[in-house]
Structures are given as structure tokens and as C-alpha cells.
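Q: what sequence does this backbone want?
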């Protein structure tokens, strides 16, 4: 029972971190139709910015400032890059964001080097939150879950209960009507893309010190983010949330179990492959994903 409880909590915390990553990508795709291959690079930027800021003025200012800087960078990318290639279709957008990911990675190498940096959990969040039988659950894991849930509620309220949220949703399906009402649709899309980048940056602030901050972190999480979005359903925020928890718990339990499978392999050895296997099987049965709202 202790093992089940601890691994369930670990799986939920990892799943919520995946949701923090996938929510920005889902938001941008659902509202703009842009599949951003550089999204994981914004996550890496958030972690490095937070490392730099926290080393100067502390973790809590970094928690606010780093996502804002990443969001501002995302808006510049949309305004002066993505908007220019948008008229050439989705292939041009994919190639642009794909190239951008490499530029960000190389810039990271030049500025911070190729080794991991010492971005640590702040002392006030470093310790046990509670004890389950003989195991202590860290405060920072609880903090990660709290931030992820707060972010989910904030996104839902912003999109469904505010005027700007209604304008954003209307701008996708009826851009001419929204523009006729006096709203600047290109500016709305710029804010949406910047908001998605800021969400990835926030995930980097939270996840960078929980795991490791190094130049390969974007490449490590990039594929699993896309798997999460596809499994949940392209464009579905609720689907991304369910898929994140499902994949987080599945991987956490699989890594911890040494059950024998076939050809001498154990469950823990094939754990990294399981999300991709789930995605392939789901696409065969339900191509739109769990709660898909639009085609990829």
C-alpha cells in the first residue's frame, strides 16, 4: 500500500508537470492551428532564465519574471517570424519552429555552456511535506502540483469567464467578424502565442530544479509533450490534462516495477516506450485522441 500511494503521488506530480508543458502547446494549436516544434525550447528557456534570475535575486522573483521573459520572446517570434510564414501554410510554420528550436539550443550552448547548471530547489521548499508509513513526500512535489492545478483553473476561467477569452475563441472561427467589431486579430494571435510560450516557461521554472537544467532538456521532453497532446486529442485542454495524468502514472509505475515480460525484458526496461505504444494504439482505435476537437 505504501508503494502504491507513493508512486501514485509521484505519477500525479509528473503528470501535472507534463500538463504544464502540453497545455501551452494545446492552447496555441487549438486557437491558432499552429503546431509549435519549438515549444520544448521555451520550456528550456524558462529553466535557464529562472536559474539566472534566482542566482541574483532569488527563486520567487524568478517564478514570476522568467515566464514573462519567455512569453515576451514568444510574442516577438510570432510578430516578426511566424506571422510572416503563416501565409505559406502549415509546412512553412513547422519548418520555421523546427529551425527555431535548433537556434535556441545553440544559443543556450553559447551562453551557458554544454554542462548542466546548478539550479536548485529553494531552501524553503526543500524538505518533507508529510510522511506515508516509512516514506517522506517532498514539499516541492506538492508545490509543483499546486502550481499546475492553479494554472489549469486560471486558463479555464480566462477562456470561459472573461471578455478577452471570448474574443480569443471567436477570433479563430470568425476572424473577419471579430475584426469588424474593432479587435486587432493579429495582436490577439500574438498574445495567444506569447501566452503559450509563457506557460512552457513556467513549466521550466518549476521542472528545471526538480529534474535537471541542461541543454538537452528540450530534446528529452519534446517527444513526450507531443505524445501527450496527441493522446489527449489535438486542441483539447481537458484531453491534455487526462492524458498527462495517464502517461505520468503509467511511466512512474512501469519504471518502478521489474515484472518480467518477454525476450528477457522487464517492465522497467520498456517503460520509456509505453507512451509511444499507447499513442499508436489509440490512433488506430480513435484517430482524434481521447477528447480531440480538431484535426491535426
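A:
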Amino acid at each position: 500500500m505504501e508503494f502504491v500511494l507513493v508512486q501514485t503521488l509521484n505519477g500525479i506530480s509528473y503528470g501535472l508537470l507534463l500538463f504544464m508543458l502540453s497545455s501551452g502547446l494545446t492552447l496555441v494549436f487549438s486557437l491558432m492551428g499552429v503546431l509549435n516544434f519549438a515549444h520544448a525550447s521555451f520550456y528550456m528557456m524558462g529553466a535557464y532564465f529562472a536559474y539566472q534570475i534566482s542566482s541574483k535575486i532569488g527563486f520567487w522573483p524568478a517564478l514570476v519574471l522568467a515566464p514573462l521573459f519567455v512569453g515576451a520572446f514568444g510574442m516577438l517570434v510570432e510578430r516578426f517570424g511566424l506571422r510572416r510564414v503563416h501565409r505559406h501554410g502549415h509546412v512553412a510554420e513547422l519548418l520555421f519552429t523546427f529551425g527555431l528550436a535548433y537556434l535556441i539550443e545553440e544559443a543556450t550552448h553559447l551562453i551557458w555552456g554544454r554542462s548542466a547548471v546548478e539550479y536548485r530547489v529553494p531552501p524553503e521548499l526543500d524538505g518533507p511535506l508529510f510522511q506515508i508509513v516509512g516514506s517522506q513526500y517532498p514539499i516541492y512535489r506538492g508545490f509543483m502540483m499546486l502550481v499546475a492545478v492553479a494554472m489549469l483553473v486560471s486558463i479555464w476561467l480566462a477562456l470561459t469567464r472573461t471578455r478577452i477569452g471570448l474574443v480569443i475563441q471567436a477570433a479563430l472561427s470568425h476572424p473577419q467578424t471579430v475584426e469588424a467589431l474593432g479587435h486587432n486579430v493579429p495582436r490577439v494571435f500574438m498574445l495567444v502565442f506569447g501566452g503559450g510560450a509563457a506557460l512552457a516557461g513556467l513549466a521550466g521554472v518549476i521542472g528545471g530544479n526538480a529534474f535537471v537544467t541542461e541543454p538537452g532538456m528540450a530534446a528529452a521532453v519534446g517527444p513526450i509533450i507531443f505524445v501527450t497532446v496527441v493522446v489527449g486529442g489535438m486542441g483539447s485542454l481537458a484531453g491534455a490534462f487526462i492524458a498527462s495524468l495517464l502517461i505520468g502514472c503509467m511511466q512512474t509505475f512501469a519504471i518502478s516495477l521489474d515484472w518480467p515480460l518477454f525476450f528477457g525484458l522487464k517492465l522497467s526496461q520498456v517503460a520509456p516506450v509505453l507512451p509511444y505504444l499507447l499513442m499508436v494504439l489509440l490512433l488506430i482505435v480513435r484517430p482524434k485522441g481521447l477528447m480531440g476537437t480538431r484535426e491535426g
